[in-house]
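Bit of a strange request maybe. I'm writing a small parser for structure token strings and I need a real example to test against, not something I typed by hand. Could someone generate the tokens for this chain?
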Amino acid sequence: MKALHMIAFTLLVIGGLNWGLIGLFDYNLVGKIFGDMSQVSKIIYILVGLSAVLEAVTHAKNCRHCGNKMGQPAAM
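Reply from user aminoacidic:
Good idea to test on real output. This should exercise your parser:
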């Protein structure tokens, strides 16, 4: 499960950086690398969206700050 969390986290960082570039500079890095709305770009966008859902659903369990009331790291 930790590997899935790390993959999801990495995809969220990529998605967040891409959105930041779009907002600040109107520059779509994923689109520039893989082609605007190419099949690969669509797959990346879908994976980023699924990663966001996964992290939202499992956040409390994975987060050492939110996982329990005592402030202890959540068990892996």
